[in-house]
Design goal:
It is a single chain. With 141 residues, the protein is mostly helical. The protein starts with 7 loop residues before the first helix and ends with a strand. It contains 2 helices and 3 strands.
């Protein structure tokens, strides 16, 4: 006797091949989306580096307002973390030394007077390639 309560397509189900095809398509879609997001991560890191450089720039301006001068190139950005010798009025502006690193784990560079900004200072990151002096460097110029 035929079961009249269930439609015939419900009893049929899916074959193993059909399930495998669906899983393959889902896997391909996830791979395409994941590879497309890789460019967004690097773009985000570049923007974060620019924001960090602007933050350090503001802290250097505060350093100058307290001490009367910018840190020398030899004192570097560590002058925002550790009191340099010869500076009478000083406040710690960077709590963690790691805050002076870019998203790629490299230290930010500092030069005073700057070659790009001769009347003030240069701050820059070597960028995603971690090579100083290349086209992907990110700086305050």
């Amino acid at each position: 006797m035929k079961n009249t309560l269930r439609p015939s397509f419900v009893a049929r189900g899916f074959t193993l091949l059909e399930i495998m095809v669906v899983l393959l398509i889902i896997g391909l879609l996830i791979g395409v989306v994941a590879s497309g997001l890789g460019g967004f991560e690097e773009s985000g890191q570049i923007q974060a580096t620019g924001a960090k450089i602007q933050s350090v720039r503001a802290q250097l301006i505060s350093f100058k307002s307290l001490s009367g001068q910018y840190p020398t190139t030899s004192q570097g950005l560590m002058a925002l973390h550790t009191k340099p010798s010869g500076v009478s009025r000083w406040t710690q502006m960077i709590k963690n030394e790691a805050d002076l690193n870019d998203p790629w784990g490299q230290k930010l560079f500092y030069r005073y007077p700057g070659s790009h900004n001769p009347t003030s200072f240069d701050i820059w990151s070597s960028g995603p390639d971690r090579q100083d002096g290349t086209d992907d460097d990110i700086g305050n110029w």
